[in-house]
Write a structure and sequence with these properties.
Largest sheet: 6 strands, parallel
CATH topology of the largest domain: Rossmann fold
Distance between the termini: 62 Å
Structural class: alpha/beta
CATH class of the largest domain: Alpha Beta
Radius of gyration: 21 Å
Shape: globular
Strand order of the largest sheet: 3-2-1-4-5-6
Strand content: 5-15%
Length: about 350
């Protein structure tokens, strides 16, 4: 291990995947305290790595944008070759990620045995299907005898990020001491989305019964959905932050919230990283896939149906046509879980 002085971690998947890779990054620093650690990721997620004390360099790969295509791919390979890395760690199981490690002539390459590019790895690690994604990622360090006690994900908002979040609350008439509830109603996959009117019903009752205001969060692509929910609420009950903040500003905002209510999507893991309790709604997917909120103090709301799960990611539409995995979860049930975590009396009337 003393011969390993430059390490590359390749993670070019979604936002949540990168958050769940941060314990691996921390473990690499623990195992190789003097090594130079670089992380290859996409521009959309790179903000999550800023100010991470365990990283020396972030390398961007805009695989769906400016660097799309074989020519840009080979240019990146040549760039990585010049860096002369000793070890590549590849949690992302795509062929492209494995090819980057292999073609860059990195002598030691570790990845999962289920990767599309497994033949390119010098160390093949068994992929535990029913383990949490954080634990699976940490398995990649077993060949080097590195283990981690605290497996929590982490993100490092700057003071400016926290100031931006605090200013958002102030502008929307929300006192930080009152700790609003965050709601993330969006997802890349339509079948992973709980009906928006149910989110609105929960938000209305939180406001009317307990005086709890809500903040609707997400990306620019979620803004219209969030505004639709906000428009259904009483005046002053909620504010839309979707599309207005960077990832780290969103993390800072989540840190100021009492709880996050979300579909099975990236905000779940961002909230966990900021130590904010989560109520996660799972429909077509199941926690056994490894993407439930990590740690204690969170809960998953789901229905036990024979047709679940119907896919690793969900889908564009319900294969059975009834969407009961989501439609069968009531606002009352979700509100009950929120009240339990926040120790609110659900019988209280507004």
């Amino acid at each position: 291990m003393s011969s390993i002085s430059k390490i590359l971690i390749i993670q070019t998947a979604f936002i949540g995947d990168l958050v769940l890779t941060t314990p691996l990054i921390r473990a690499v620093r623990k195992g190789f305290p003097l090594a130079q650690i670089s992380v290859l990721t996409i521009p959309k997620t790179a903000d999550l790595l800023r100010d991470n004390p365990h990283i020396d360099m972030v390398i961007l790969y805009d695989k769906r944008g400016k660097q799309r295509g074989i020519r840009a791919f080979l240019q990146l390979v040549r760039k990585l070759r010049r860096e002369r890395f000793d070890l590549a760690i590849v949690p992302h199981r795509s062929l492209r990620s494995a090819l980057l490690a292999g073609l860059s002539r990195i002598p030691q390459r570790v990845g999962f045995n289920t990767s599309a590019g497994v033949f390119l790895f010098t160390h093949k690690v068994f992929y535990r299907k029913n383990a949490h994604e954080i634990e699976r990622n940490l398995d990649l360090l077993r060949p080097f005898g590195i283990y981690l006690q605290d497996k929590s994900p982490e993100v490092f908002p700057s003071p400016n990020d926290r100031d931006t979040a605090a200013e958002f609350l102030r502008k929307n008439g929300i006192q930080a001491s009152h700790r609003p509830v965050a709601i993330a109603p969006g997802s890349v996959w339509p079948t992973k989305c709980w009906p928006p009117e149910r989110f609105a019903e929960v938000a209305k009752r939180l406001f009317k019964q307990f005086g709890k205001k809500v903040i609707l969060i997400g990306g620019e692509e979620d803004r219209q959905l969030c505004q639709r929910i906000a428009d259904a609420l009483p005046s002053g009950a909620g504010a839309v932050a979707a599309g207005q903040m960077s990832l780290r500003q969103s993390a800072a905002l989540l840190e100021m919230c009492a709880l996050l209510l979300s579909n099975d999507s990236a905000p779940v893991h961002l909230a966990v990283a900021m130590k904010t309790p989560v109520v996660a709604i799972f429909g077509p997917t199941v926690p056994a896939f490894g993407f439930a909120p990590w740690g204690e103090g969170h809960t998953v709301v789901q229905r036990r149906l024979q047709c679940r799960p119907c896919g690793v990611h969900g889908g564009r539409k319900c294969p059975r046509g009834h969407f009961q995995c989501m439609k069968g979860i009531s606002a009352e049930q979700v509100l009950g879980e929120i009240c339990r975590i926040l120790q609110l009396d659900q019988k209280k009337t507004g």
